[in-house]
Structures are given as C-alpha cells and as structure tokens.
Amino acid sequence: MLDLLKSHASVRKYKDEPISDETFHELLHAAQHAASSNFVQAYSVVRVKDPVKRDKLAELSKNRKQYESAALPLVFCADLKRLEHAVSLHGKEILAGATESFLVAVIDTALFAQNFVVAAESKGFGICYIGGVRNNPETISELLELPDHVIPLFGMTVGVPEETNEVKPRLPVEAILHEDTYDESKYDEILTKYDSVMEEYYRSRTANNKNSGWTDVMAAFLSEPRRTYMLDFLQSKGFLKDT
Amino acid sequence: MLDLLKSHASVRKYKDEPISDETFHELLHAAQHAASSNFVQAYSVVRVKDPVKRDKLAELSKNRKQYESAALPLVFCADLKRLEHAVSLHGKEILAGATESFLVAVIDTALFAQNFVVAAESKGFGICYIGGVRNNPETISELLELPDHVIPLFGMTVGVPEETNEVKPRLPVEAILHEDTYDESKYDEILTKYDSVMEEYYRSRTANNKNSGWTDVMAAFLSEPRRTYMLDFLQSKGFLKDT
C-alpha cells in the first residue's frame, strides 16, 4: 500500500481506453468515505462528456493534451450549494459567505479528491491534478453552469496511462516534521542539501531534463504574481464575504 | 484497496500502544508523494510530544479524550514559511498574502494529510481529524510557536484503535456527480431519500443512536455562526492580504 502511494506521478498522456460508468462510480463511492468536517460532504465533481465543452475546458485550463486524451475529464468543486438545499428543507439558511465555511468546503473537496486518486491508482489508472482550471475560473464556472457557492477548485484527468512521469524526490521528512514547536532554523541547511538531490534528479531524468534544483525553481515561480483575480472571483461566487 | 477506503471511520479511543519513529516517518514519507501544486510542498506537521503542550492542545481544540490517548497527537499546518526560506536563498520574496497562494497551501496540506490517513489505515492504525484546532487557532499557534505564513489547518490523532466508530452511509454518488453541467434540480428528491437512509443508520447504530436524518442535522449545525474570527486570524498570520 505504501508502495502504491510512493509510486504516484502525474500522467499527462493516456491510452484510448474508456473507463466504464460502473468503475467510475465505484471509485467515487469509495472516495466519498474520506472524512468530512461535521459530515457536511461539501464537494461535487463535474464530469465533462460533451466534446465541445471538453475542448473549451482544455483550452481554458491550458491543459489541452491531458483533457483531450483522458477517459475521465473531471472538475472538482468546493460546493456549499447542496447544503443550501438541505437546510432550506428546514426553512433555514447557511452562512456560506463565512471564511470558515469556505475553508471547510475546500478541505472536504481535497480530502475526497485525494481518496479518489488513491482509489483510481490502486486500479491501475493514472491521474493528473489540473490546477489550471483556476486560470479561468469564471468562464469555466459559466461553461459548467456552476451556481453561486460552487467553485471549480481543481480539475483532474483520469485514464489508462500511456506515459507516466518519473517520481520526483520529495523534501526529506525532517523538513516537514516539527517536534512540539515549529523550527525554521533548520531550513537553510536542509533545503541546500535537497537542492543537490533535485539537481541530480532533473539532470538524469529521461524527459525534460534541466539544470536546476528546487529552491531556484520556487524562487522563479513564486515571486511573480499569479491569479491575482482569485479573491474577487471567490467573492463573486459568494465566498469570503465576511471581509 | 477500495475496501480499505470504504472502511474508514473516525477513531476517538486508542490503545496504549506507541508508534515508533521509524513507522511514523515511513508513513509521512509515503504521504508526501501526494501531488503538490507546482511541487511547492506547502505543508508541515507538528508532532506534540511534550505532555504539558499536549494537554493544552487537547483543551484548546476541545478534543481532550482523543489527544490524551493517541500515540501521535499531530497538527497539520498550511505552510508558506519554508518556501520563504527557499526563495530567500535567491534574494527573492514570495507573495504569501495572495488568495491563490493560500488556496495552494490549504489544498496541498489536505492532499498530503489524506494520503497520510490512507497510509496509516493500511497499517491498521486509526485516525481522527480534529477540526477543533480551528477553535483556538491563535493560542495554538503561540503554543506551537508557528511563525507568520503557517497556520494550524486541522489536527489529527493516530494510534491503535480501541474503539472504531461505525461507517456512516455517504451521499449517493448521483448527489455529488454532475454530467457536463451542474444540476441542482435533483437535490430535493435525492436528499429526502438520503434522510431516510441516515435516519435508519442513526436509529440502529450501537453508540449515540438518535432520531435524526442528515438535512436536519445540517440545518441545525450550519445556520449558526461558527469561528467568525477566522478571516481576522488568517490575515493576522499574513494570509488573504489582497483584500
């Protein structure tokens, strides 16, 4: 089981083999057994079957290749709309605009999605998370007719792998684990060593080999503004309104 | 594998059996292979060993019983601080205050945590997510000396199960799955049926049986304000500052 988790790598090219509805639903059902904060189950999945919609989604999320070849082109949504319906049956309203409600929905969706990934990979399928749906969240919301209090959090492609990326070496456990108190004094030494590990990996991997470590890639990537419209978008969908 | 996922239920009482550092690190290492947005790996785990700190954490998160008996009392943190160190090695700064950066860190942390849960449960351990650390996030941050750009997202207890809760029936797949477009017209019928399923479950379960369904529990729970300080707290830690 740990070997299955440790073998995860994104799949960006799939074989032309379908996944049956039965199998897909079985994976979803298993995934739904992830924990959910107070059992609110605040997530939805949109499966994009229509080829025109799929092509638009591929273009909007800037992940054409994956979405075109995947058996299951999916969008995972943080969803408080179903809960609105649930409580309206009792003449009540939820506080969907509260930051805490947003946090709950995002975490719920992510736990569910990762359980889905483990389920899918255990059956030999490959997956790729598509953060790129957040490149055009408003247009994608229109495309999928997402109402208020539902947002496309990330996409995912699923299928039978044609090519699998190599597994990237993760940060050493001591970088992410702290005992009793958070200790940032250790980072510079650990990260410098990790750069060597990543340099070796990037140099020797078969595809897209390059000359870089980890911290330099992060520096180049994270110091530029990204998706600066995100707060406006979330608020336009009724989230984070307690500002 | 799907059977393992489907058997998940929270464990709130543990046997007095330790988990070795070796095993714990092995679980963490496997869990780190969850996907990470642009490989930023924006999470940390604080393990609380010190009994005084553990008791305080238990009290602050209002989960005394679990935290007292668990072999591993953990706090999972969304963490952009390590990335600050990484990019500072190259004379740069990250945009930690951007809503998109916050989203990335929260999702990264949740994917990692759920992978950790699957790893732990595959080894026969039980777990319980503790959303209750968000009851007193400021005091818990002080207790664990979390710097800016690190927040306690949720806690977790891990150990050898003494008692396991029963598995709750999840929403039917058709409630969470949409085809091409989001369809909320189906909810009222599906949720009414699901209420009957949950009523039967709550009536017949061995512990804490009660007379309720799902929508009424949600209505009672979600219509009251909760953790209304959350946005202020997050901003005080340097997140969501693009408002």
UniProtKB/TrEMBL annotation, chains A, B:
Please name the source species.
Answer: Siminovitchia acidinfaciens
- A GO molecular-function annotation: FMN reductase (NADPH) activity
Q: Which domain of life is it from?
A: Bacteria
What family does the database annotate?
A: Belongs to the flavin oxidoreductase frp family.
Nitroreductase domain location is: 6-159
- The EC designation for this entry is 1.5.1.38
Q: What is this protein called?
A: Oxygen-insensitive NADPH nitroreductase
Question: InterPro entries given for it?
Answer: Flavin_OxRdtase_Frp (IPR016446), Nitroreductase (IPR029479), Nitroreductase-like (IPR000415)
Q: SUPFAM superfamilies per the record?
A: FMN-dependent nitroreductase-like
Keyword Oxidoreductase listed? The answer is yes
Tell me the Pfam families matching this sequence.
Answer: Nitroreductase
Print the keywords alphabetically: Flavoprotein, FMN, NADP, Oxidoreductase
